[in-house]
Structures are given as C-alpha cells and as structure tokens.
Design goal:
four-stranded antiparallel sheet, single chain
Length: 321
C-alpha cells in the first residue's frame, strides 16, 4: 500500500513522528500539569497514605483551635459579668445625689442677692435626659437646699449636669453657674461623699454616689414609690432667711410681701409633693453633712456661708416679731 501512495503523501508519512506509548505522553510531572495543592501533596513521600495522615493531623489542629476559642468565649462572658458587677462601662446602677448648699454666689438681682435653685439633669449615653430641681431659696447668696434626689438604671457612661439658676418671675431664669460630673468618676459603693465644687463665683456643696448594689436600688425604689406625685400647680411663695437672725421667713416673689408664718398656699403646695426631695435614701453619715466649703475641685471664689450676704432694702425686710 505504501508503494501505491502518491509521492506527496509518502513524503509526509515519512516525516511524521512516531507515536509514543500512552504511559510516555509527557515527561512533565503531574504537579506542573495541574498546578494544584492536591497534586503537590500527591507527589509527597509516601504517596496517598501520607496525604491521609496529613489531613488527620489537620483535623486534630482544627479541633484544638475550636476548643481554645470556646474557652476564650467563656472567659469573655465571665469577664463581662464581672465588669458589670464591678461597675464596668456597660453597667447600670442607682445614682443618689444630695444638693446641700452653696456660698458666695453671684448676685443677679438689684438688691444685691439672688433667688437660687438647682436643676440636676442626668444625660444617658442614648441622649435621654431626666431632671429634678430643688426648691428656691429667696434673696440669698448662701442657700441651703438640703435636697435629696435619685435615679434608677443610670448607665456608667452617663453625665450629670448641675445648673444653679437665679429664679425670676415669668420663669425666665438666669444661670449662675454649672458643674459637670461623670458617673464613671464616682466610686461604685454605698457611700455618698460630699465635695465642694467651685463656680465662676462662689461654690456649691454636693454629695453624689453611684452603686450597683441591690440593697441601694431597693432603698431608692421604695422612696420613689412612697413619694407623692408632684402637683402641677405653682406658687410664687419662696422661703428666705434673715441675714441677721438666721430665722426663716416667706417671701412672695411678685408682690414682694413677706411673712413669718408659712402661707397656706405654700403649705398645700409642699404637702402635695411639689418642690420637695426624697428622704432616707442616704447613708446615716451623709444625712447630717453640713455645707463646709473646703477644697473646691474647680476654680472659684470661696466664701463661708453668709459672708456674701448683702444688706436688704428696707422695703423688703421681713416683718418684725
């Protein structure tokens, strides 16, 4: 048959490369043909048996890592619980404050005095706010409020704003000074220590404490429940103190009328829970704290209580006994 082929086909047939056997198709190793990890492992010493052994070791390492991760997760959960119990950043507790008094405040009224009251606002990390205010001490620069207040479920990262205002008719009040506190700076215990804070003029004495104790929470919760709901009615009668005798009298902020006897309107106002604070929410040692203005934490003029009291105008003097 080859002799009968055309010359051109014979020449091509003669130039063809003899076919190689199937097992000699290529001298390139399988790892270069496929380029994969499995091919590399298959060429490792020991062949397929060694590959199975390596996978078994890998599975053992994965099991060890998973066990360690589980242990770390348990440690993290316990650490979070301990942090909450100790007052960590995610903890919430009970905040108690005793607004005791002030001295040397700035005079905002023409008579050389002010009608100071304090508004305390707790600002939570969520932005929500809750405020309480003290009663107003009329015509004085050295008020003694002795007002207790408390809040439940206050996060550790909350902020406390203590604003001292001069009360004016028409509820347009003038700011005398402000103190800004961080709940995180308060110790997590049952104590409510008193501290003096300087204002632009004068200073204010506050006692503040934050606690995660269940007993403290129960104490405050009981006081809040027993407190009568404040009446929305308002009164223009204010409590003042005679600078010379120290005796309290009552002053009407609009008519300027004064009297030694508590007006019936003011008594009814206080009996309905308006303008009054809580009671029996502080440790026994904190119940009798006096406004001794010592060691202020902020810069401000320091005066003992009563030292800045200005002479009152003759027309505004309390009635004589």
């Amino acid at each position: 048959q080859q002799g009968n082929m055309p010359p051109q086909q014979q020449q091509q047939q003669g130039n063809m490369t003899p076919q190689q056997p199937p097992h000699q198709l290529s001298s390139v190793p399988p790892v270069q043909q496929q380029g994969g990890v499995h091919s590399q492992l298959s060429q490792a010493p020991g062949g397929q048996g060694d590959l199975i052994q390596r996978f078994a070791l890998l599975e053992q390492r994965v099991a060890v890592i998973e066990a360690e991760n589980e242990r770390l997760r348990a440690v993290t959960v316990q650490a979070g619980a301990d942090s909450g119990a100790a007052g960590g950043t995610d903890a919430s507790g009970t905040l108690r404050m005793h607004v005791i008094g002030a001295a040397g405040l700035e005079a905002k009224d023409e008579g050389g005095t002010s009608d100071p009251f304090v508004k305390v606002t707790v600002v939570k990390p969520s932005g929500s706010k809750q405020s309480y205010r003290t009663q107003t001490c009329a015509r004085t620069l050295s008020p003694e409020w002795n007002h207790q207040m408390a809040w439940l479920d206050v996060p550790r990262e909350s902020t406390i704003l203590v604003d001292v205002f001069d009360e004016d008719p028409g509820d347009v009040h003038e700011l005398i000074g402000q103190v800004k506190l961080k709940v995180a700076d308060l110790l997590n215990n049952d104590d409510v220590p008193a501290q003096t804070y300087g204002l632009v003029e004068g200073a204010i004495v506050l006692a503040a404490g934050w606690s995660t104790s269940e007993s403290v929470r129960a104490l405050v919760d009981k006081a809040l429940t027993a407190r009568p709901k404040p009446d929305k009615r308002k009164t223009d009668w204010r409590v003042a103190k005679d600078a010379q005798s120290g005796k309290e009298y009552y002053y009407h902020r609009k008519t300027k009328q004064t009297t030694w006897d508590m007006p019936a309107e003011l008594k009814e106002f206080q009996d309905n829970g308006a303008g009054t604070g809580l009671s029996n929410i502080l440790p026994p040692a904190s119940q009798t704290v006096q406004p001794q203005l010592l060691r202020p934490q902020q810069q401000g003029a320091m005066q003992p209580p009563g030292a800045m009291q200005q002479p009152q105008k003759q027309g505004n003097m309390p009635p004589q006994q």
